[in-house]
Amino acid sequence: MNLRSHAALGLLATAFASAALATPAAADAPVVVPLQGLEPVIPMDAPTLETGVPTPVPGAPTGFHQGVGSLPDLTLPRVPLDSTLSRTDIAAPLPEVLRGSEPGTAELSSPRSEMNAVTPGATVGNVLGAPRPGEMLPGLKAPEVGVLTPALNGALDPQLGLAP
């Protein structure tokens, strides 16, 4: 990589960081990512990127799991997160391959969509077992450890096309 490529990557990282640091109030407003700094490096006009910043909204933890015995299992609960992915539009002018031709613009768009996620969790089984016959105190047993998997639900419907 040469110095111009490093500069372009730096400009791109700065643009994405500025879009990510937008305030939550601006989440519904479109954010235009400035990519004009790439024009000296790439052999065509810079693409345009317009999107929004998703704001995850945490919900209440899923709660503790009931154990088999009298005590519940010790659990690190899963936390649900809901968010709306904003409409995203990317338009890149196509380079002129033949003289006098106007190839148009390649466009990729994705409409607004709802996303639901759940963070991972953990469970540790009860270390106290049922009392053995003839004993008053419960017995100790090895804990059963488990991981509650994360989940992501949603639907994206991107569309790719050419515009004149």
Shape: rod-shaped
- Report how far the terminal alpha carbons are from each other: 34 Å
Major beta-sheet overview:
5 strands, antiparallel
The portion of residues forming beta strands comes to 35-45%
Helical amount among residues, as a percent range? 10-25%
**Secondary-structure element order, as H and E?**
HEEEEEEEEEEEEEE
- Tally of individual helices: 1
Arrangement of strands in the largest sheet: 1-2-6-7-14
Radius of gyration: 26 Å
Show unreliable segments: 22-27
Using brief descriptors, characterize the structure shown.
single chain; 164 residues; mainly beta; five-stranded antiparallel beta sheet; four-stranded antiparallel beta sheet; 1 helix; 11% helix; rod-shaped
Plain-language structure description:
By secondary structure, this protein is mainly beta. It is 11% helix and 37% strand. The protein has 1 helix and 14 strands, in the order H-E-E-E-E-E-E-E-E-E-E-E-E-E-E. The longest helix is centred in the N-terminal third of the chain and has 18 residues, at 3-20.
